[in-house]
Amino acid sequence: MTIARPDQAATESAVARLLSDSLLMIRFLAAQGQPTSSDEFSVWRKQVHGLADLCHNLPALLDPSWRDRVHEGVAYTWKMASPGKRDWIRQCWDAAGYDYRWLLDASADEQPIEQPSQRAPANKCEPGHASDEGEHPQKQEPATDS
């Protein structure tokens, strides 16, 4: 049984939420300052890099010229994401109430997903690139300034 994808508006909202949550987590990690030991610094750097890598192309999915292909971009992001990045995506979308089960459906892997770079104009960002580098911290609420 194939699970239907959510409508375009819900998917755009989920992309915006993932982008927002990722940027907030980067700010939270940056506000803590760089760790002093080299081992802690390496972990901290991988967390920040992993979040930045995951979300750096998400704004392109919200660009009016890409919006009709937002599901394709989300599927590509999911397919290319490491297990740690997928965990982060799930945490963000669970909190937002987005139904991403269509990405978990076995048939989604059978559909060919064209790399965005093969069809994007040369001056546009390519949606959805996510490498396997870096893992993500457990989602937590960033500290707020008083």
What are the key terms here?
146 residues; mainly alpha; 7 helices; disordered C terminus
Shape: elongated
Largest sheet: none
Instruction: Report the sheet-strand fraction.
Output: under 5%
What distance separates the N and C termini? 50 Å
Number of helices: 7
Rounded to an integer in angstroms, the radius of gyration calculated over CA atoms is 16 Å
How many structural domains are formed by the residues? 1
In helices, the fraction of residues equals: 40-55%
Average pLDDT rating: 77
Total number of strands: 0
Ranges where pLDDT stays below 50 over 5 or more residues in a row are: 110-137, 139-146
- Strand-pairing-aware structural class: mainly alpha
Q: In sequence order, what are the helices and strands, one letter per element?
A: HHHHHHH
